[in-house]
Amino acid sequence: MISATFSQTNHPNFSYLDVFELEYASDPQIAPNGKTIIYRRMGFDIMNDRATGALWMMNTDGSQHQKLTSREVSEFSARWSPTGDRIAFASTTNEGTEIYMHWVATGKIAKISQLENSPGSLTWSPDGSWLAFTMKVAEAPPVIAKMPKKPKGAKWADAPRITDRLNHEADGAGYIAPGYTHIFVIPSEGGSPRQITSGNYNHGGSLSWHPDGNHIYFSANRNEDWEYDFMNSEVYQANTSTGEIKALTSRKGPDYNPIISPDGKHIAYIGFEDNVQAYQLRRLYIMNADGSNKKLLSADLDRSISNIQWNAKGDRIYFSYDDKGNTKIGYTDLKGIITKLADNLGGTSIGRPYAGGSYSVANNGTIVYTHSRPNYPAEVAILQPKQKRPQLLTALNTDLLSHRTLGEVEEVWYKSTVDGLPIQGWIVKPPKYDPSKKYPLLVENHGGPILNYGDRFSAEMQLYATAGYIVFYPNPRGSTSYGETFGNLLYNNYPGEDYNDVMDGVDYLIEKGLINEQQLYVTGGSAGGIMTAWIIGKNNRFKAAVVAKPVMNWISKTLVADNYYGYANYRYPGQPWENVETYWKFSPISLVGNVQTPTMVMVGMNDLRTPPSEAKQLYHALKLRKIETVLVEIPGASHGIANKPSNLITKISHTLAWFEKFRAKE
User: Fold this and answer.
1) Burial, 17: exposed, middle or buried (Cβ in 10 Å; 0-12, 13-18, 19+)?
2) Nearest to 380 by CA among 79, 65, 6, 19
3) Which of 131, 212, 268, 481 has the fewest C-beta atoms under 10 angstroms from its C-beta?
4) Comparing C-alpha atoms, which of 90, 83, 35 is closest to residue 57?
5) Nearest by Cα to 105 from 124, 84, 91
6) Would you say 452 and 479 are in contact if contact means Cβ atoms under 8 Å apart?
7) Helix 645-663 to helix 459-466 angle, to the nearest 10 degrees?
8) 3-state SS, residue 574
9) Which H/E stretch holds residue 654?
10) What are phi and psi of 220, to 5 degrees?
């Protein structure tokens, strides 16, 4: 087996262009017999400035590690047939995204579909003769007025884009073309797809076939007022022959990810009763296949559940969950007794140390998953039954990271001065750290705010540390992976005492003698940008700040963002026009009159989540007040500024350049 422990003495530090050399594993799928693994190997194309992904295979001992096909195109969503003799996958070419089949015995591949749009949620029927998938079916946009016919050869302006939908755009994707997502089936030998669902509703997410092959289970919101009842979804059963659809759940709130048991008697699913609050735990439930006898299984776990899978015997359900900034794999029996199996799932969020990753389970209980530590992104790991420690099967970055010196990541805990709550964070020390020195501090606030950072690889944190900073990234109140109460402390109170939690961490590090109190710098993006703007409005302790893609004014942001309909009552009571005082009270722009800190403001010009108008409010206010500031607008970038590798580098390099400008004035 492979070790991912790298000797990093006397090697160059991690650098900007190294970002393009990073690779990571995603979506590992183990064959039903537990002998072979297929996964998506991700990398970055330096010439075209984008992520790339191709399918690779290997045996579970790590041998015969090879590319699935010789095609140099995007391949993804590989799924084993029930007998393991074939692999269905999706691939994108110049003609669009289609379904392909790979025959394991011969190594041959073939395209088996000709689809209108991209397929999702590829799922095999139990007998291997069909594949189910989801696909968007286009609808015509509304027409308001009939235009007169233009003269032949005339060059008129483009026709207006008209929408009458509540949800009509999405950050990163832009305008959402009219249409609805439906479930289809297609013969696994190729043929014409057949639509199973109907109606003007979206049917997305995971699919699960009943063992009899006559029914598919899925989640959707088919309520009459589904657009405005956006938090709700139910578990449904669809007859694959007649298209008859039956609802199996009916409560207020989301119920989704239904998975039928191997014997067809039970359905496991995830959901919660919507209590209209900032953070609500995703819980694991089980019910009979007809929707009766619903039972909560994860009552004893104060953590959100994701990615559920049955074992082959049908007597346990696997799942993943975040606990104190680390993602775990565990299982529960049908009585609700929970057992943890593995740590360190993740490593697919290359820029910042967010949760991510996936796993799969063979019939014999062997688990493969994406494994990450702070010194390497996701590798394929295997955990055999009754084994306590996983073994790494890949070492995708040994060629790079074994020849680089990384900053050491260290976990810290301290107490909030507000109420004594324990707060977790991490520091990254500069490479070749000298404990006799005091270093400048760079605080990096995470987004969400209902998310978590953790002990995972982060190119961004490493590059900040390489520049000579101790980097501090905390999980203040409101962060996930510490329970529902902790995560919900920001309900109607954001930003709130999370500000104190961050500053308490800064004071803790000062007390430890690690940093120079006169060289404090702060940054963060999205909710981290909100926190950064809030911090410099509350105190003048930082030499410089970089506020990335912030919300500055909740009144203006809420009705402009792509998800404008989802804030009222979950964030603050009522709509902005109903509660102007509260929306303004928690808007960082309300504190801008206090700001003395030199501040760079950064935003993607195509950001639909925290639109550029929000960043400009801060920049314009600081210019009017003659506070040293600069606006950095990144062309073509959405809210995920770092989706392009060069934009990740742009973000980090401009942040560091701004900070260095004020370090030079010391």
Assistant:
1) exposed
2) 65
3) 212
4) 35
5) 84
6) yes
7) 30
8) coil
9) helix 645-663
10) -165, 175
Question: Residue 144 class from Cβ within 10 Å (0-12 exposed, 13-18 middle, 19+ buried)?
Answer: exposed
pLDDT for the residue numbered 245: 97
What is the Cα–Cα distance from 652 to 200, expressed in whole angstroms? 44
Identity of the residue numbered 204? G
| pLDDT category of residue 9 using cuts at 50, 70 and 90 | low
Distance CA 612, CA 357 (A): 31
Residues 6+ positions from 644 with CB-CB distance below 8 Å: 49, 50, 636, 637
Q: How far is CA 590 from the centre of its chain?
A: 31
Residue 277 falls in which region: left (phi positive, over 0), alpha (psi -120 to 50) or beta = beta
| Sign of the alpha-carbon dihedral angle for 321, 323, 326, 331 | negative
Question: What one-character-per-residue DSSP string does 364-429 give?
Answer: TS-EEEEEEETTEEEEEEEE-TT-SS-EE---TTHHHHTTSBPPPEEEEEEE-TTT--EEEEEEEP
Residue 224, burial from CB neighbour count under 10 angstroms (0-12, 13-18, 19+): exposed
pLDDT of residue 2: 57
C-alpha to C-alpha distance for 429 and 350, rounded to whole angstroms: 19
| Nearby residues of 650 by Cβ (< 8 Å), 6 or more positions away | 634, 641
- Average pLDDT of the residues in 496-500: 98
What is the identity of the amino acid at 192? Answer: S
The residues, any chain, with a CB within 8 Å of residue 128's CB and separated by 6 or more, are 81, 82, 83, 85, 86, 188
Nearest one of 613, 485, 508 to 555, comparing CA atoms: 613
- Give 386-410 pLDDT, tens digit per residue: 898 999 999 999 999 999 999 999 9
* Cβ contacts of 611 within 8 Å, gap of 6 or more: 557, 560, 561
Paired with 94 in beta bridges are none
Cβ neighbours for 442, distance < 8 A, ≥ 6 positions apart: 464, 469, 470, 471, 472, 521, 522, 523, 659
pLDDT of 147 over the 50 cut: yes
Give the length of the chain: 666
pLDDT of residue 93: 80
The amino acid at residue 114 is Q
Average pLDDT over every residue of 23-50:
97
The residue among 132, 118, 140 whose CA lies nearest residue 79 is 132
Q: Distance between CA 90 and CA 82 in Å, rounded?
A: 18
Cis-peptide, bond into residue 449, ω within 30° of zero:
yes
Q: Which residues contact 296 (CB under 8 A, 6 or more apart)?
A: 283, 284, 285, 336
Alpha-carbon distance of 519 to 544, in angstroms, equals: 9
Q: Phi and psi of 165, rounded to 5°? A: -100, 150
Do strands 544-548 and 515-525 pair parallel, antiparallel, or not at all (unpaired)?
parallel
Cα–Cα distances (Å) from 476 to 40, 423, 490, in that order, read 34, 6, 10
Separation between Cα atoms, residue 225 and residue 245, nearest integer Å: 18
3-state class (DSSP) for residue 118: coil
Q: Calculate helix-pair angle for 527-538, 498-511, nearest 10 degrees.
A: 70
Alpha-carbon span 113 to 116, nearest angstrom: 10
Question: Do 318 and 269 meet the contact criterion of CB atoms below 8 Å apart?
Answer: no
* 213, 173 Cβ separation under 8 angstroms: no
**Amino acid present at 143:** V
Burial state string for 164-175 with b = 16 or more CB within 10 A and e = fewer than 16: eeeeeeebeeee
